[in-house]
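FORM 7B: Structural annotation worksheet

SECTION A. Query
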Amino acid sequence: MTDVGSAIPRRQLGRQLRALRDGAGVTADELAAELGWHRSKVWRIETGQSPVVRSDVLSLTQVLRASDEMREVLLALSAESRNKGWWHSRGDVIPDWFEMYVSFEQAADRIRTYASDALPGLLQTADYARAVYRAASDDSDDEIERRVQLRIDRQSLLTRESPSVPRFDVIINESLLRSAFGGAAVMRRQLAQLIRWTDLPNVTIRVLPFAAGAHAGTEGTFVLLGFPEAFAEPDLVYVEGATGALYLDKSKELARYEFIMRDLNTRSLDPERSRDFIEATAKEW
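SECTION B. Predicted structure
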């Protein structure tokens, strides 16, 4: 695994432990009581929300009567779950809940997003990102600059050589082309950058125009992440809030967001017309 961080092995380890617990007929409450843990620790481990140290794996596999072979598999995943990606060195500007997203983002081979609040971070210029952070927080100028640099550094995944670049399919609401993040000059440069991004073969940008009317994306911005077959990982939906994020992977949740994405695709301009639309809007700034 090439610098994809800890999120994928953590998620895999959590699923394996949940399956082991279910197979043993033990509830999460019973397991927590047996180990002297709070139930929330079991939940965080099984949902991949936190890394699992070797001693905890040994305790879990003993209580759940795992085979020697299964114990070794889980210990190997535990070791992987503590891998550090390049972004871990930015811990002072990246909260735990977003560190997990960056790890998933690095591992994904397809990223689909609908943006209605601000342009996706992977497409933002530094000036646009700066305007977003200044509007959304009271952080110092130094903190904002470090956050902006992290956002710009994340964009390298769209042009990286190894592992192969992910497919990035974006639908942006027309309102984002007309909202003055940072002022007219910032917006002109940002829209010009959007057009340059469309030159990449792995990036598709489509515009959902006002004329589309009512649509299924009224719940707001979200990201759908897909992973290489080698990971054997189900898709994941990421929905960000002001102080945390939701990671959704239940079948009904995925089906709901797939429906939303299909509806938005139906109503959005095709890539060529979207590029023309962005170019025309840029001239209005």
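SECTION C. Observations
The chain has two domains: 7-80, 86-284. The radius of gyration is 21 Å.

SECTION D. Sign-off
Analyst initials: ____
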